[in-house]
């Protein structure tokens, strides 16, 4: 603004003066929230992800007592991989704190006596040295209390700031604190708490066993896991967040980092509103929002059609190969006007309409394609197809993704019934199934493949990764197709 003012002086007398004046008028006044009067005391409700405490509504500012316990504990990163997490309140991310502007928060941080290390907390919602870090530094078996007044509304990250800070954050020491404006945020039907984080293990991604933290990889920013809510699969399958058609959904999304920026996206939805960087600025009609490490965003949208909507970091290898994948399951009536599903399927002729298609002689075509290729050729063609079509979900070695995509490697479900497997590739699959003792309840999209391609890809799958070596023929595929 200073520059603008001096420019105005220079240009005084010219027409531009009017412009300058009106711009200066629009300067946003700094609100003094430090004098908001406090009435009474209450205990804060703290929640574990993906849940959030009740909205503040129109309650007056209060003294809010927050008691948070630090726990160092072993947990599961993904199937067969254990990790020692350092947590605020026993979960990654830590307990959600919900307060309002003007509240005086009396924060007690206790460090469980079984813990090995001292910790502290830096809340980005604090106006004060270190965001509270200096006043909250606490050794195992001790507790510390400090207080602060919430001066700015918004969604803020909190994290441990004990050296080496990066290591404490990388082990899961972060969470969100929401400071609601006077009168609260607009009402919505569903609210959830999601936080992304990147993890670094001594072993490679998915290497089994108890995996210690790897400082070298962390410094190189070479993450083994990029996940929502502390582990692979925290928001998939039975852990998916839910809503009903017609409801409004608000997601409080944070990024603990320590290193990576999140390109947060929900496949098949558009954010109606995004509180950019968790502040007051609202952007509308957003596809993907950028959430920096140590930052947050509030996104909301109405769900209009049923289905499974996939939450991802759209830096997409992180979603399909490192775990940054969640699910929002929306149930209710379909609305064909808003989303039709497949309306029609046909043959695409890149040559255009001028080249006439030969009338199809059904018998002739059948003879042509029922000529089976050699098994080796089928497996080779099938592999190519697998790597472009199935791989994204079922993964390179057919290992799948826990709680999201079932394995095809040594799959008892696959090996038990060839016709059923053909049917799945032809028509897609929804509903609960059990593969190798684990339940999946998700959606496999319908694949548009020719009969030959279905035969090839399944022959490849059956002849890989310890499966039963079935040779799926085109006539098998035809049989299943015609039985529908
Ligand atoms: Cu710590």
UniProtKB/TrEMBL annotation:
<dbReference type="Pfam" id="PF00394">
    <property type="entry name" value="Cu-oxidase"/>
</dbReference>
<feature type="domain" description="Cytochrome c">
    <location>
        <begin position="377"/>
        <end position="465"/>
    </location>
</feature>
<dbReference type="GO" id="GO:0050421">
    <property type="term" value="F:nitrite reductase (NO-forming) activity"/>
</dbReference>
<dbReference type="GO" id="GO:0009055">
    <property type="term" value="F:electron transfer activity"/>
</dbReference>
<keyword id="KW-0349">Heme</keyword>
<feature type="binding site" description="type 1 copper site">
    <location>
        <position position="119"/>
    </location>
    <ligand>
        <name>Cu cation 1</name>
    </ligand>
</feature>
<dbReference type="InterPro" id="IPR036909">
    <property type="entry name" value="Cyt_c-like_dom_sf"/>
</dbReference>
<comment type="subunit">
    <text>Homotrimer.</text>
</comment>
<comment type="pathway">
    <text>Nitrogen metabolism; nitrate reduction (denitrification); dinitrogen from nitrate: step 2/4.</text>
</comment>
<keyword id="KW-0186">Copper</keyword>
<feature type="binding site" description="type 1 copper site">
    <location>
        <position position="168"/>
    </location>
    <ligand>
        <name>Cu cation 1</name>
    </ligand>
</feature>
<feature type="binding site" description="type 1 copper site">
    <location>
        <position position="160"/>
    </location>
    <ligand>
        <name>Cu cation 1</name>
    </ligand>
</feature>
<keyword id="KW-0285">Flavoprotein</keyword>
<dbReference type="GO" id="GO:0019333">
    <property type="term" value="P:denitrification pathway"/>
</dbReference>
<keyword id="KW-0560">Oxidoreductase</keyword>
<dbReference type="InterPro" id="IPR051459">
    <property type="entry name" value="Cytochrome_c-type_DH"/>
</dbReference>
<keyword id="KW-0408">Iron</keyword>
<dbReference type="GO" id="GO:0005507">
    <property type="term" value="F:copper ion binding"/>
</dbReference>
<comment type="similarity">
    <text>Belongs to the multicopper oxidase family.</text>
</comment>
<keyword id="KW-0677">Repeat</keyword>
<dbReference type="InterPro" id="IPR008972">
    <property type="entry name" value="Cupredoxin"/>
</dbReference>
<dbReference type="InterPro" id="IPR001117">
    <property type="entry name" value="Cu-oxidase_2nd"/>
</dbReference>
<dbReference type="InterPro" id="IPR009056">
    <property type="entry name" value="Cyt_c-like_dom"/>
</dbReference>
<feature type="binding site" description="type 2 copper site">
    <location>
        <position position="173"/>
    </location>
    <ligand>
        <name>Cu cation 2</name>
    </ligand>
</feature>
<dbReference type="Pfam" id="PF07732">
    <property type="entry name" value="Cu-oxidase_3"/>
</dbReference>
<keyword id="KW-0274">FAD</keyword>
<feature type="binding site" description="type 1 copper site">
    <location>
        <position position="124"/>
    </location>
    <ligand>
        <name>Cu cation 1</name>
    </ligand>
</feature>
<dbReference type="InterPro" id="IPR011707">
    <property type="entry name" value="Cu-oxidase-like_N"/>
</dbReference>
<feature type="binding site" description="type 1 copper site">
    <location>
        <position position="159"/>
    </location>
    <ligand>
        <name>Cu cation 1</name>
    </ligand>
</feature>
<keyword id="KW-0574">Periplasm</keyword>
<dbReference type="GO" id="GO:0042597">
    <property type="term" value="C:periplasmic space"/>
</dbReference>
<dbReference type="InterPro" id="IPR001287">
    <property type="entry name" value="NO2-reductase_Cu"/>
</dbReference>
<dbReference type="GO" id="GO:0020037">
    <property type="term" value="F:heme binding"/>
</dbReference>
<dbReference type="GO" id="GO:0042128">
    <property type="term" value="P:nitrate assimilation"/>
</dbReference>
<feature type="binding site" description="type 1 copper site">
    <location>
        <position position="314"/>
    </location>
    <ligand>
        <name>Cu cation 1</name>
    </ligand>
</feature>
<dbReference type="Pfam" id="PF00034">
    <property type="entry name" value="Cytochrom_C"/>
</dbReference>
<keyword id="KW-0534">Nitrate assimilation</keyword>
<keyword id="KW-0479">Metal-binding</keyword>
<protein>
    <recommendedName>
        <fullName>Copper-containing nitrite reductase</fullName>
        <ecNumber>1.7.2.1</ecNumber>
    </recommendedName>
</protein>
